[in-house]
Structures are given as C-alpha cells and as structure tokens.
Amino acid sequence: MATLTIPKNLLREEDLVVIPKSEYKSLLQIRTKKIEEVEMTSITKKALMSARKNLSKNKFLNIGELRHKLGIAH
After folding, report:
1. Predicted local confidence at residue 37, as pLDDT
2. What does 26-59 look like in DSSP terms, one character per residue?
3. Which of 40, 43, 59, 64 has an alpha carbon 20 to 30 Å from 28's alpha carbon atom?
C-alpha cells in the first residue's frame, strides 16, 4: 500500500478528501453547469412562507418525532 504525506502548510481546512482525477473532473463539470431556475407557483410560495414562519417559531418535528408520528421504528 502506498503512503502519502501531505505537508501541514498545504492543508487550509481540517478535512481532506482524496478522489480519482476522473471524479474530480466530473465534479468540476457539474459545478460549472448552469442550473435552470424554475418558477414557483403561488401554492408553492405560500407553502414555503408557511414553512419559514413555522421554522422561525421553532414549530417543527425532529426526525425522532416524525418517525414516532408516522409509526416508523428507529
């Protein structure tokens, strides 16, 4: 197995991810693609405003509460 040593001065962040060059190129292509915007309907806008309002009032379920309400085992 090959060993690779990376000098600390090259690390700007705490995390380091090593991927094949082909995957890196693929990620770069995705990153530079222009993503089309989709117009929201009035129903979607109202739902988003309601969700934001509930979130600001801390009126939401965490994953455990949601599973309990849906009857899903952990």
Report:
1. 87
2. HHHHHHHSPPPP-PPPHHHHHHHHHHHHHHHTT-
3. 40
